Amino acid sequence: MKKPPTKKRSRTNWEKIDTIKDSEIDFSDIPELGKTFFKRAVLRLPEPKTAVTIRLDRQVLNWFKAKGPGYQTRINAILRDAMLHEIKH
After folding, report:
1. From the DSSP assignment, how many helices (H) and strands (E) are in the chain?
2. d(CA 60, CA 63)
3. Average pLDDT of the segment spanning 58-74
4. Which of 1, 35, 38, 64 could bridge across to 71 with cysteines, CB 3.0–4.6 Å?
5. Burial (CB count within 10 angstroms: exposed 0-12, middle 13-18, buried 19+), residue 41
6. pLDDT greater at residue 51 or residue 5
7. Distance between CA atoms of 69 and 42, rounded to whole angstroms?
């Protein structure tokens, strides 16, 4: 299912962005990554999630959905925190 386009308008001035030359971009706050960094770098991809069916109280589900898109990700984050907390104790 395709997500509907957002209703929020971007406040970015795309015309200005399109006219900026690479030489005009200030990279002073971005550290340069040298050969050492890339020699030690490890690519870590997130584990794929598993689709499940879960029964939740209607009020709980409505509360998560009311916070906007990404409610399933928020539910997962809360369950992960609970899991990690229990593992520590």
Report:
1. 4, 0
2. 5
3. 96
4. 64
5. exposed
6. 51
7. 31
The pLDDT tens digits for 1-43 are: 566 677 788 889 999 999 999 999 999 999 889 999 999 999 9
Give the position of tokens 């520590």: 88
Helix (H) or strand (E) holding 56: none
Residue 64 contacts residue 71 (beta carbons within 8 Å): yes
Once rounded to an integer, what is the mean pLDDT over residues 59-73? 96
Report pTM: 0.53
Rounded to an integer, what distance in angstroms lies between the CA atom of residue 55 and that of residue 46? Answer: 26
Q: Are 75 and 64 in contact (CB under 8 A)?
A: yes
45 φ, ψ (degrees, to nearest 5): -90, 145
Other beta carbons within 10 Å of 77: 11
- Tokens representing residue 37 in the block: 């960094």
